[in-house]
Design brief:
InterPro entries: AAA+_ATPase, AAA_lid_NorR, CheY-like_superfamily, Homeodomain-like_sf, HTH_Fis, P-loop_NTPase, Sig_transdc_resp-reg_receiver, Sigma_54_int. This is Sigma-54 interaction domain-containing protein. One of its GO terms (biological process) is phosphorelay signal transduction system. Helices cover 49% and strands 12% of the residues. It is built from 20 helices and 14 strands. The longest helix is centred in the first third of the chain and has 34 residues. By secondary structure, the protein is α/β, with parallel strands linked by helices. The termini are far apart. The structure holds adenosine-5'-triphosphate (ATP). Adenosine-5'-triphosphate binds next to helix 7 and helix 15. The site of adenosine-5'-triphosphate has 21 residues, from helix 7 and helix 15.
């Protein structure tokens, strides 16, 4: 089936010209529209692979049209045409999701080349998306990687406890695989036919967590215009994974205790008690016993959760797992980024083993992903893994690495951003001694946003506690 292109411009001559170029020189199907509103209506009805649009049009400008199109089908490729070659326009168009922009007047070969590239990009996005889905699926069922005695005994314990209905509390520093362990417990359990429901207790704000968990009835509060099912109801018959349980406030802890003890809960605004048959798995990187002493965590809830405790050790306790994990992530990201990388050099491994991973396996995974993006050969070298600032990569570089500057634009942007996040956050946490609220205030961003960034970067704020 040939690919379809929609061209939108208020100048009819331009439409005729582009239509002629495309139909004479390519096998793509082309359709034209001189009214952006009508173009949008057509786009809603039909699937197009690429939309080429003029920037300045009456009724609706090209950037607005682009935004609407990306909202409807984000994987559509787009090219903006403009008579004004300003860098701001180009940046804005690219930020809104356009593949490229082209200035009028353009040569026939130039526009045809841009069209080909935009369509190739779309195909690549498509392939990457299905690859990503495949990888996510595999991640969900894949056992924990590692050959150390520590990880072997965790796997053994998981296999033993999984088929029971016992509540499991998974402890350990950030990025050690607690969520992966929870998935494995569910996967080896008798409930695996149903999806495991995950609640991230940090990510949900305090005022919505109750209704997220227990649901609400119509009229319970302003905006509750119909009944809403909570995650507890969705987890009925399956496993409920309470991630970062140490972040739950005391009043929610009390409600959760009731659910754990009696299997009972009440949706917000309801007087009727409901029942749910749930297997609970919880995880935390807090020291809950200290939290109990400080009055931050209910002791009775702790004992309810801690029927079976699985501890995920930090990477510093099992450095012998680093080579196997590194190899595993190389395979994963080489496949994702379609690169022919199969190995890691002895020297790179030596540096990794000597590196202090405050973010544990997640940080190792991020470093390898970055390495795969940078690598130009078939084996990862230390400079690929720690680009920009030499090895190890803790010293901020004042100049952007040559490697980045020589990459294709999109890869370079991704690599530079990853480097920026990592170094900015490390610096902020070092100065705040690991205090996230203070670091966020100084950076002028919300605490929750910084928390998310820290997690995505694979760092662990705890590791910065005594750093300054
Ligand atoms: N043993 C392992 N084998 C393979 N991948 C792992 C392993 N441990 C962790 N990972 C990977 O590291 C990343 C972090 O793991 P996960 O989210 O399970 O950690 P966590 O302990 O729950 O972190 P946090 O406390 O920050 O929520 C994930 O991408 C996961 O797939």
């Amino acid at each position: 089936m040939s690919l379809k292109i929609l061209v939108v411009d208020d100048e009819k001559d331009m439409l005729a010209l582009l239509s002629r170029y495309i139909s004479e020189d390519t096998a793509y199907q082309v359709q034209t529209e001189n009214n952006p509103m009508e173009a949008l209506a057509v786009f809603k009805q039909e699937r197009f692979d690429l939309v080429i649009m003029d920037l300045k049009m009456p009724k609706m400008g090209g950037l607005d049209l682009l935004r609407q199109i990306k909202k409807i089908r984000p994987d559509t490729s787009a090219i903006i045409m403009t008579a004004y070659a300003t860098i701001e326009t180009a940046v804005e168009a690219i930020q809104e999701g356009a593949y490229d922009y082209i200035t009028k007047p353009f040569r026939r070969e130039r526009i045809l080349l841009t069209i080909d590239k935009a369509l190739q990009w779309r195909r690549m996005i498509f392939e990457n998306m299905s690859l990503r889905e495949e990888l996510v699926q595999k991640d969900a069922t894949r056992p924990l990687i590692g050959s150390s005695n520590a990880i072997k005994s965790v796997i053994q314990e998981i296999k033993q406890v999984a088929p029971t209905t016992a509540t499991v509390l998974i402890t350990g520093p950030s990025g050690t695989g607690k969520e992966l362990a929870a998935r494995a417990i569910h996967q080896f359990s008798l409930r695996k036919a149903f999806p495991m429901i995950t609640v991230n207790c940090t990510a949900i704000s305090e005022n919505v967590i109750e209704s997220e968990l227990f649901g609400h009835v119509k009229g319970a509060f302003t905006g509750a215009w119909k009944d809403k099912k909570g995650l507890v109801e969705e987890a009925d018959g399956s496993t409920l994974f309470l991630d970062e349980i140490g972040d739950l406030n005391l009043s929610m802890q009390t409600k959760l205790l009731r659910l754990l003890q009696e299997g009972e809960y009440k949706p917000v605004g309801s007087t009727r008690t409901r029942h749910a048959d749930i297997r609970f798995v919880a995880a935390t990187n807090h020291d809950l016993e200290t939290d109990i002493k400080n009055g931050m965590f209910r002791e009775d809830l702790f004992y309810r959760l801690n029927v079976i405790c699985l501890h995920m050790p930090g990477l510093d306790r099992r450095p012998e797992d680093i080579p196997l994990l590194a190899q595993h992530f190389i395979k994963k990201y080489a496949l994702l980024y379609q690169k022919d990388i199969t190995q890691i050099s002895e020297s790179a491994l030596k540096h990794l083993k000597a590196y202090s991973f405050s973010g544990n396996v997640r940080e190792l995974e991020n470093l390898i992903e970055r390495g795969v993006i940078f690598c130009r050969t078939t084996a990862l070298e230390p400079e690929d893994i720690f680009p920009g600032a030499g090895v190890p990569a803790d010293i901020p570089s004042s100049e952007m690495s040559r490697d980045i500057l020589e990459m294709p634009f999109r890869e370079a942007k991704e690599a530079a951003l990853a480097l920026f996040y990592n170094q900015y956050i490390k610096n902020a946490l070092t100065h705040s001694s690991g205090n996230i609220s203070r670091a966020a205030e100084k950076a002028g961003i919300q605490r929750q946003y910084l928390h998310r960034l820290i997690k995505e970067t694979g760092l662990d704020a705890e590791g910065f506690k005594f750093s300054s």
